[in-house]
Amino acid sequence: PTTCPPHSYTTQLISLDPLLIYITNFTTPAERASLIATGLPLLEPSPIIGAAHLAQARTSWSAPLPDTDATLACVLARAAAFLGPALLLPPDDGRRVVEMGPAQMVRYSAGQRFDVHTDWFARPRLLDEDGAAGRRRLYNRVATIFAVLEADGVEGGETWFPHVAVGGEGALWREREGGTAFKAVPGNALFWLNLLGDGTGDVRTAHAGLPVEGGFKTALNIWPRVFFGPDA
């Protein structure tokens, strides 16, 4: 089994409703270097699941990271500890189960962007492996952890939430068109809940990867999955 060294980070509560938390020092320099080295050879043009006609809205490169990677295992264990029992343990009635989903590395270079979008699906989806096994459970992305791995000479490239207003500007974010744009800072991460209490998507979590004007921005997407249905 992988032995993960102790690690500490700090958090700032950005918004209660929708829930948005800023995490400082979520990953170490060594972890970031290792994840980038693993992911770079795997990068391909980023897809948009279930929306091929919107491909022009997302011009970055991305890659799913192998779940056998020891560094990734430590980062995902840290993410699971952050989420805690409220998300990762099923409720007593057993109607939903939450699991850590696969992690995705994404990279933006000059001119690349991801227009305003949500991470949740309008309709819960069936995993290919569940469909092949005849399992009827469906899933959605209950939350997102977006961790910046690299911002090499980056200009622009903030993560913008048009419906979340913090007010004022600082070293980590700025006001943009009534919302908040978070700067790309290696090691830091954003966490937000994608779904409302009834399991439907929260439109206020819509966000964009603003165009990178220079340099590179590399980040890690972690999407815990909530499963619904009779076979969950």
Automatic annotation (TrEMBL):
Give the superkingdom in one word. Eukaryota
What keywords does the record list, in alphabetical order?
Dioxygenase, Iron, Metal-binding, Oxidoreductase
Q: Which cofactor does it need?
A: L-ascorbate
**Ranges where the Prolyl 4-hydroxylase alpha subunit domain occurs:** 18-225
MF terms in GO: iron ion binding; L-ascorbic acid binding; procollagen-proline 4-dioxygenase activity
Q: Output the Pfam families linked to this UniProt entry.
A: 2OG-FeII_Oxy_3
Entry annotated with the keyword Nucleotidyltransferase: no
Q: Please tell me whether the keyword Ubl conjugation is annotated for this protein.
A: no
A GO CC term attached to the entry: endoplasmic reticulum
Q: Which InterPro entries match?
A: P4HA-like, Pro_4_hyd_alph, Pro_4_hyd_alph_FE2OG_OXY
- This chain's protein is named Prolyl 4-hydroxylase alpha subunit domain-containing protein
Q: What species is given as this protein's source? A: Lasiosphaeris hirsuta
- List the taxonomic lineage: Eukaryota, Fungi, Dikarya, Ascomycota, Pezizomycotina
